[in-house]
Design a protein that fits this description.
Elements (H helix, E strand, L loop, with lengths): L6 E6 L7 H17 L4 E6 L1 H4 L7 H18 L7 E4 L5 H9 L5 H5 L2 H10 L8 H4 L1 H11 L4 E3 L5 H18 L7 E3 L32 H9 L20 H9 L2 H7 L6 H10 L4 H27 L2 H30 L7 H12 L1
Helix pairs in contact: 3-14, 4-8, 8-9, 10-14, 11-14
């Protein structure tokens, strides 16, 4: 189906505060896209129902973090006047569309999804212990995207398999029932370092469960403490030793956050980040000097976010009101889509006057 509008949809599971991996991977881009004025509608949601698939015995964790994530959204610069912020569980139509989508995906197709495989391994599920809701969350995610007819989904590259599955489902639905839903496209970060920011310990992915995160709400002292212990080059034992950039978390973060203007302003020795890299690789540059630059860069990035968060924290009821109003807007859009879906699937029995009249005539013969 050819989209009539350019629409963005993206979201996060409210299982903890958002970290800087979320920020460079998607959140920063959402704010830029919001401010660009290039999109007709932007929906950003908290996937609390999806979070419950592997937190079913700990609902309070999800409940408490809904407000934390909302504060992070607002602090990062999402504007509720231009971006609809909503909570997944408050849109019951999503459950209905997910139910219909389940008939369009085989078990073997879900098992081949590499993102699902990775998430299952991370959570220690195996065989028959995998909750059905967790196993089928690509279907739920496809429903989230299709419900709002999103044309664009800003996300990290680890979500590409999920977007491909969503496109497959939408394509199959439209093939069976006629053009109704829109196939989405992923919008990846332009900076390669932002595709998947590693944890402070050098692990492949920054993750709340691994405890290797720097949170958007961390104080300057907390950020500095975490940077000081950050994984670098284990072979760089002496300042004079040549250093390696590959796998060096400090330089990965500098690539993701630092501009050459910042490097020139915050150091006295380098005009560009590349100059610092060259010095490090030939030897003579210590890790702590690099870490101090990163601390300064992160502080410049995070301090405005901390300040906005502190302002919103003064009126939490107002934040809940923003979410409530966003849910109303999102549900109205979902109801429109579901009317089209039911009509396409021919299950709009009570709205189809032609059907009722046809059946009446048939039984009057």
């Amino acid at each position: 189906m050819e989209p009539k509008q350019k629409i963005i949809l993206t979201g996060d599971r409210p299982t903890g505060k958002l970290h800087i991996g979320h920020y460079v991977g998607s959140l920063r881009r959402r704010v830029e896209l919001q401010n660009s004025g290039l999109y007709d509608k932007i929906f950003v949601f908290e996937a609390d129902a999806q979070a419950l698939t592997d937190n079913i015995e700990n609902p309070e964790k999800v409940r408490q973090n809904v407000i934390e994530v909302a504060l992070d959204y607002l602090a990062a610069g999402l504007d509720p006047e231009r971006t609809t912020l909503f909570i997944q569980s408050q849109i019951p139509e999503l459950c209905e569309l997910s139910f219909y989508f389940m008939d369009m995906v085989s078990v073997s197709r879900l098992q081949r999804n590499p993102t699902v495989k990775t998430e299952i391994q991370m959570r220690g599920f195996s065989g028959e212990s995998i909750p059905v809701g967790f196993f089928t969350y690509p279907i739920s995610q496809a429903a989230d995207i299709a419900m709002f007819k999103a044309t664009t989904v800003p996300a990290g590259d680890d979500q590409e398999p999920m977007l491909e599955q969503a496109r497959e489902i939408v394509r199959r639905f439209n093939y069976i029932y006629g053009d109704t839903l829109v196939e989405p496209n992923i919008l990846l970060p332009e900076n390669a370092a932002c595709l998947r920011l590693p944890g402070t310990d050098g692990k492949a992915k920054m993750s709340k469960s691994l405890g290797n995160c720097i949170y958007l709400s961390d104080s300057a002292d907390e950020v500095n403490r975490k940077v000081k212990t950050m994984y670098t080059d284990p072979t760089h034992l002496q300042v004079s030793d040549p250093g390696h950039l590959e796998g060096n978390t400090v330089f990965t973060y500098l690539d993701a956050f630092a501009t050459d203007e910042q490097v020139a302003r915050l150091t006295t020795d380098y005009a560009t980040l590349q100059e610092m890299k060259d010095h490090y690789t030939r030897g003579g540059l210590g890790d702590m000097k690099c870490k101090k630059l990163l601390m300064a860069v992160l502080d410049e990035t995070l301090e405005p976010i901390r300040q906005r968060r502190a302002e919103y924290e003064k009126d939490i009821p107002a934040v809940y009101e923003i979410l409530r109003k966003g849910c109303e807007v999102a549900r109205a859009a979902a109801c429109e889509t579901m009317d089209e879906v039911r009509r396409a699937m021919k299950i709009n029995y009570f709205d189809d006057r032609a059907l009722i009249e046809e059946q009446a005539r048939r039984f009057q013969k």
